Amino acid sequence: MTENAVINIKNKSYSVTAEIIVPNSGANGVIIAQGGSFAGWSLYAKDGKLKYCYNLLGVKRFYVDSNKLIPTGQRQVRMEFKYDGGGLAKGGNALLYVDGKKVGEGRVETTVPMLFSADETCDVGRGTGSAVSPDYDPRNNEFSGEVNWVQIDLEKDDHDAHDLARRAVQGRHGAAVT
């Protein structure tokens, strides 16, 4: 899916939850990725562990790793991003969960404010463009098990940058802008 077809997670708190089936051989590969080598994010497994990578314009990558292997069988994996707020391109904390238990936490110091890419996509179960992270190959990165579903949720935050911009326009013109 193109970037505009996916919920906009920039400048706000959000979560990504997926139900996966991990084979006996272990978890490896992309669960979901948006963007590519010049900007984006990816939730994936490497050597059996859950990982999250946030790619800041190809200049800096921020990683969060789980502290244990994802067990075999049907599992729910989740990444929660807690945006610092206060404007565009701020940082936040990323937390990883497997079956509701926290398995990792890390910091993303700054984020992409507006656009990851004009030509990269959001992919589930594999990455089809350039790789967000050098942890996986841009071609052979299909998840080793099954990805049953992925859900992206926004956390309601009255102080996110887009809401502030809407309220500023509304205040100047006296009418709601959606």
Write the layout of secondary structure elements.
Layout: E1 14-22, E2 29-36, E3 39-46, E4 49-56, E5 60-69, E6 73-83, E7 92-98, E8 101-108, E9 122-124, E10 146-154, H1 161-173
Antiparallel strand pairs: 1-6, 1-10, 2-3, 2-9, 3-4, 4-5, 6-7, 7-8
Descriptive notes:
- The chain is mainly β and 178 residues long.
- Helices cover 7% and strands 46% of the residues.
- It contains 1 helix and 10 strands, in the order E-E-E-E-E-E-E-E-E-E-H.
- A 5-stranded antiparallel beta sheet has the order 8-7-6-1-10, with no helix packed on it.
- A hairpin with a 2-residue loop joins strand 3 (39-46) and strand 4 (49-56).
- The relative contact order is 0.27.
- The model has no long low-confidence stretch (mean pLDDT 91).
Overview in brief:
The protein is mainly beta and 178 residues long. Helices cover 7% and strands 46% of the residues.
Summed up, the helix count is 1
Q: Which term fits the overall shape?
A: globular
The overall pLDDT, averaged over residues, is 91
What is the rounded Rg? 17 Å
Profile the largest sheet: 5 strands, antiparallel
SS class: mainly beta
Strand order of the largest sheet: 8-7-6-1-10
Runs in which pLDDT lies below 50 for 5 or more consecutive residues are none
> Residue share in helices?
under 10%
User: What is the straight-line distance between the termini?
Assistant: 24 Å
N-to-C series of helices and strands: EEEEEEEEEEH
Work out the strand percent.
Answer: over 45%
Count of extended strands = 10
